Each structure stands twice: as structure tokens, then as C-alpha cells.
UniProtKB/TrEMBL annotation:
Protein name: Membrane protein for polysaccharide transport
Membrane-spanning residues: 29-51, 71-89, 110-130, 150-168, 189-208, 214-233, 346-366, 386-407, 419-439, 445-463, 484-507, 513-533
Region (Disordered) residue spans: 1-20
CDD domains for this protein: MATE_SpoVB_like
Bilayer topology annotation: Multi-pass membrane protein
Gene Ontology, cellular component aspect: plasma membrane
Entry keyword Ligase: no
Main location group: membrane
């Protein structure tokens, strides 16, 4: 009762305090958005020199890198189990209750718990590197073992690092959080490129060693991130307080928080890792099943897998990041309306979320599909017919995968975790059942087809249940989606026309530099066309409110 009163009293802020809080929130959002954007740009741009320095082994290297990272990403999800968000919530709570020493003790205890969890997860990944490599890479997967072991080092320190990030998030000191993420990415990319150049251009030319050093870069980057976090801890004077916290007013049990967080987070982790799990299934089945029906060598299979998975994933993950951002913005609002029982507002928000998603994702997916040849040339090489068709398939499929990331979180936050788990399980079963026959019949297209079929069923079931729970207006939602679809059609026409005209200038097989101009000019023309029509039809104001009106004025439309 006393705690509740304190929290309520602190909520009665003066206008000056409220303004300060708003400034902190805007500053934090700016830091997070800026760091995230720079990190994503670095995470895409590095591919160009890295792939080029790998020479004729670029596709094999990318596949080896991707197979290791798929397992690594799953271990990261499991090893953190939603703890950073729980730490942020508890730190904010105890600081609100004027008991900062309790927050220090909590962070110190959780560091111990997560250090143990990191050791366990890292040990499993390190000592199971052989079986895991055989699982995802087939019988001739010895080159993948050192990749797995190098990534196990990053798994060792990531859980404890996430506790400190959660601590800064709870204090609303987002600059420290954002800078740690940014420096992690910068250090990682520098190590990757320097090591790859040293090996492939100056040293042994062993592409397998270059890939291992590139994955080791994840651990080196985290060391840089840790250094930034400790710098901000020392600068703020919190490091000594974490080591020697003073007397506390409350009681806390770190293990109890861990257990309750684990219980809450498991559905989010399992359902949210669906795409990652499906990628692992693709790797393991393709590399193990294709030798049954073809005479391809192990390296040739790695090349084929790069066509439908590794090469496309590097670019489609940017689009999926947009979907994840949209979902993360709407989830708290959906939770708020659901808890308050605002059914009408909840229905409106869910329908609006679909319209906003289509408005963002559809033009991006169609635009990238139309510009497949210049985009692929910029990052990799002039694509063959097979590479182009697989890339287009994967890009279009991204719309479905992103939609999945939009529709499953509302069910989990609306206390339907078991139902969400059942839908996920059915989606997974369909993938497993269809995967092998699809690969045996359609070869490189097989994994993409199996994923498409399974996610179509899963997304349909999620949307149907969302409609049953919220009764969002299908008519209004479809009407809004039709507007975005029409604009995308206009955009596509412009992109095609501009690309044809530029084709007469740069020739049928433009190189990397010419492809940059084609993608920039044709893509820019299409993007402006989309914005222009969106402004004229009033969709910018509908999607973004006052910011849409401001954008319209800046564009002088």
C-alpha cells in the first residue's frame, strides 16, 4: 500500500517536471533511433567489401557465416530470456520508490545469475559445436565447427552485458544504452573487415579462417560495448554503488525475479524466434537432403544456399527490422487499451496497425523486387536468372514474415499466450511436414515454398483470432490497405519506366557503380511518387497525424 501511494504521489508531477520527463523521453528516443539506424546501415554496407574480398568463395563464405549466426542468434534469445526488460522495469520501480540501493543490489545479484547462465549457454554451444554443425551444415561441415566455437565466446558475455543495458534503460539513461550498441557494431565491423582483408589479401587466403574471424568479431564488438557501459557507470558514479550498495528499504530475490520473468518470457521467446527456427530448419534440411537427389558437392550446396538464404537474409532483415519497430511501438498501446477495457479504441488501433504496416512494407517490398538486379549487383555480383528469381521470392516473402511479427504480439499481451503457442506449433508442424518433399521436388525453391505455406496458415489464424477478440473493422482496414496498394502501383510504374530509361544509358549489364545510380535514381523517383500521391490523397495525415501534415509542407505538396 505504501509503495503504491509513493508511486501515485510521484505521478503527480508539476508542469516543469513533466516537461523535463518529456525532454528525457524525446532525447532517449533520438539516441536509440539514431544508434539503431547507424547500426543497421553498417550491418548492410560492410557486405560490399567483405564479399568482394572473399573473391570466388564469397557465396560459400556467406552461407557458412549465416549458418553459424542462425544458431548463435537462437542461443542469444535463450540466454537472456527477457531479463533486460525485467531489469529496466524493476530499476525504474525502485528508483520511483526512492530506494536506489535496492536497484543496485538487484543489478548486482542479476549479474551473478546471468553470468552463470552465460557460462552454461556458452559451454553448450562450444562443446556441442560438432553436432550442431552437422545438424545445420550436413556431414561435411568441419569448417563450421570453429565458427560455432568463436560465436560461443559472444554468448558467454552477452547475458551479463544485457543486465547493465537494462539498468541504464531503467534509469532512462538511453544515451549509454545506445552508445554501447553503436560501438558494438562499429568494433564488430572494423574487426571483420580488417581480419578479412588481412587474410584474403595479405595472408593465407583461407576463406574458412576469414569467416571464423568474422564471426569472432561478435565477441570483440561486445567487449567494446562492455567498455562503453563501464565508462558510463564510472562517469555517473554508479559503478562504486553497484559494487558496494548501501542499506535498503525493500526486499528482493533475484532468483524469484528470474523465475517469474522466465515464465512470462517463454511464449515471447518461442513465438518470436519462429523466423530464426525456420532458418535453422532450412539450413539443416537443405544441406542434408539435397545429396539424396543431386550430385552437388558440399561447396556447391553452400553456394545454392547463399542464393535463397544467406545473400537475401542480409537485406531482408532490414525490412523485418521495420516490422519489428512497428510492432514494438503498438504493443504497449494495445496492452494499455486492453487492460483498461477500451474495446473500441483497441479495435481501431489493431486495424490502424495493419494499414500502417502495409503502407510502410508494401512499397518497400515491391520497390526492392523491381530493383533486384542493381541491388544484387551493388552488394554481391551481377545476378544470374536463378539468383534474381530466388531474391525476388525471398523479398516478397518478407512481407508475410513481417506481417507475422505484427500479428502475434497482440495475442500474447492480451493474455492468450497458450493460444498463440498452439498457432505457432501448428505453423511449425506444417513447415516440418512440407519441408522435405518441397526440397526434394523444387530444390532451392523448396525451403521458401514451405515457409510461405506455413506462415500463410499461421498469419491467417492469428488475424482471425485478433478479429474475434477485438472486432476491428475489416471493411475500414481493407479500404486503407487499398489506398496503399494503389499508391504502390503508381510507384511501381514509375520505377519500371525510369529503370528502362537508365538501362539505355548504362547498358544491359551495369557494374556496381552504375547500379548504385540506377537504384538511387529509380528508387528515389518511386519513393517520391509514393509520398506525393499519399499526400494528395490525405494518407500522410491519416498515417502520421500532425507529423504527416508537416512532412507534406516540407515536400511542398
Amino acid at each position: 500500500m505504501e509503495d503504491s501511494e509513493k508511486i501515485m504521489n510521484t505521478g503527480q508531477q508539476s508542469p516543469k517536471t513533466a516537461a523535463k520527463s518529456k525532454d528525457q523521453m524525446l532525447s532517449g528516443a533520438a539516441w536509440r533511433t539514431g544508434a539503431d539506424m547507424i547500426g543497421k546501415i553498417l550491418g548492410v554496407i560492410y557486405i560490399i567489401p567483405w564479399y568482394a574480398w572473399m573473391g570466388r568463395f564469397g557465396n560459400e563464405a556467406n552461407s557458412l557465416f549465416s549458418m553459424g549466426y542462425n544458431i548463435y542468434a537462437l542461443f542469444l534469445l535463450i540466454s537472456t530470456v527477457g531479463i533486460p526488460a525485467a531489469i529496466a522495469r524493476e530499476v525504474a520501480r525502485y528508483n520511483t520508490l526512492d530506494d536506489p540501493n535496492m536497484a543496485y543490489r538487484l543489478v548486482r545479484q542479476m549479474l551473478g545469475v546471468m553470468l552463470v547462465l552465460g557460462i552454461v549457454a556458452s559451454g553448450l554451444m562450444f562443446f556441442l559445436a560438432g553436432p550442431l554443425s552437422a545438424l545445420v551444415g550436413g556431414k561435411d561441415s568441419a569448417d563450421l565447427i570453429p565458427v560455432m566455437k568463436s560465436l560461443a565466446l559472444a554468448v558467454l558475455i552477452f547475458p551479463s552485458m544485457s543486465v547493465i543495458r537494462g539498468y541504464f534503460q531503467g534509469l532512462n539513461q538511453v544515451k549509454a544504452y545506445a552508445m554501447s550498441q553503436l560501438l558494438e557494431q562499429i568494433v564488430r565491423v572494423i574487426w571483420m573487415l580488417a581480419a578479412t582483408f588481412a587474410i584474403m589479401k595479405l595472408g593465407s587466403h583461407n576463406w574458412q579462417n576469414a569467416v571464423t574471424q568474422s564471426t569472432l568479431a561478435a565477441f570483440i564488438g561486445m567487449l567494446g560495448s562492455y567498455a562503453v557501459l563501464f565508462y558510463y557507470l564510472q562517469k555517473s558514479g554508479n559503478l562504486n554503488k553497484l559494487i558496494n550498495p548501501g542499506p535498503v528499504k525493500s526486499k528482493i530475490n533475484a532468483l524469484e525475479i528470474f523465475r517469474s520473468t522466465l515464465h512470462t518470457a517463454i511464449p515471447f521467446i518461442v513465438i518470436g524466434s519462429a523466423i530464426q527456427i525456420f532458418k535453422i530448419i532450412d539450413n539443416s534440411t537443405f544441406m542434408n537432403m539435397m545429396p539424396w537427389v543431386t550430385n552437388y558437392s558440399h561447396n556447391e550446396l553452400l553456394v545454392l544456399m547463399s542464393y535463397f538464404s544467406a545473400n537475401t537474409d542480409k537485406l531482408t532483415m532490414v525490412l523485418l527490422g521495420v516490422a519489428l519497430t512497428l510492432g514494438s511501438v503498438s504493443d504497449p498501446l494495445i496492452t494499455e487499451h486492453y487492460v483498461q477495457g477500451n474495446r473500441r479504441e483497441l479495435a481501431t488501433l489493431v486495424g490502424y496497425n495493419f494499414q500502417l504496416y502495409v503502407g510502410f512494407m508494401l512499397p518497400a517490398v515491391i520497390g526492392m523486387s523491381l530493383l533486384t538486379k542493381p541491388i544484387y549487383t551493388i552488394f554481391y555480383q551481377i545476378p544470374s536468372g536463378l539468383q534474381s528469381s530466388l531474391f525476388v521470392f525471398a523479398i516478397l516473402q518478407t512481407f508475410l514474415l513481417g506481417l507475422y511479427m505484427i500479428v502475434y504480439p497482440p495475442l500474447t499481451v492480451m493474455d492468450h499466450k497458450r493460444l498463440a503457442m498452439r498457432i505457432f506449433t501448428l505453423t511449425l508442424v506444417i513447415k516440418l511436414v512440407s519441408q522435405v518433399p518441397m526440397i526434394l521436388i523444387f530444390h532451392t525453391y523448396g525451403p521458401l515454398l514451405a515457409t510461405t505455406v506455413s506462415f500463410l496458415v499461421g498469419v491467417f489464424l492469428f488475424i482471425r483470432k485478433l478479429h474475434e477478440l477485438t472486432h476491428f473493422s475489416i471493411k475500414n482496414t481493407v479500404r486503407g490497405i487499398q489506398g496503399a496498394t494503389l499508391l504502390t502501383g503508381f510507384m511501381a510504374i514509375v520505377v519500371i519506366i525510369v529503370e528502362i530509361i537508365l538501362g539505355f544509358i548504362f547498358g544491359k549489364s551495369p557494374g556496381r557503380i552504375a547500379s548504385v545510380f540506377i537504384a538511387a535514381i529509380a528508387g528515389g523517383a518511386g519513393f517520391y511518387t509514393y509520398l506525393w500521391f499519399a499526400a494528395k490523397l490525405g494518407l500522410l495525415e491519416k498515417w502520421f497525424g500532425p507529423r504527416g501534415l508537416s512532412l507534406r509542407r516540407k515536400l511542398h505538396i
